[in-house]
Amino acid sequence: MAPPFSAIVYSRILALRWRRVDLRTGTLRITERFYRGDFSSVKTKRSDRDLPLGSVALETLKNWRLKHKGGPDDLVFASRTGKPVSDGNLRRRVIYPTCDRLQIPRLSWHGFRHLHSSLLAYLGIPVAVAQAQLGHADPRITLEIYTHMASGAQREAVEKLERFLLFPSCSQVVPKLRESRIPKTVN
Length: 187
What we know:
Elements: H1 2-5, H2 10-14, E1 21-22, E2 27-30, E3 32-35, E4 38-41, E5 49-52, H3 55-67, H4 87-102, H5 109-122, H6 127-134, H7 139-146, H8 153-166, H9 173-181
Antiparallel strand pairs: 1-2, 2-5, 3-4
Helix pairs in contact: 5-6, 5-7, 6-7
């Protein structure tokens, strides 16, 4: 379930209520947070946002909803007593075992946000989309702090550019570039 939630700060996941999950349209509404035992509104206007769910996350939440009956004000991720799950327990019981099963380094919840931003950049998703998903007010925060270059990304970029420039089927621009470089011969 991490991908759709990896853009969300853990305190907002802990405060997510069923009334903020639209299983019909496949969206989440982030409006509050749970931090150090207290519920409160999110800190910034950009943090108050709707996030789309992918089809896998949506089906997972639908199944989760069927197993966890309750009212619209109930928490999506609650303890047996209906209270918010402890962030430490969430890490120890869900996040770390999942990382171990996937044989990836153990990531903090915040680490997932960095990974989310970096993967979006690697996939060529516009920074404005990543900024909106992460709830950042300024795209520089997304780019300068949260987005990290993937291993081999520079090589991949150079190779893509090389293929674009050297192979005529890549673009209509390439033949024009080549023609301008070929010296004219005099007969």
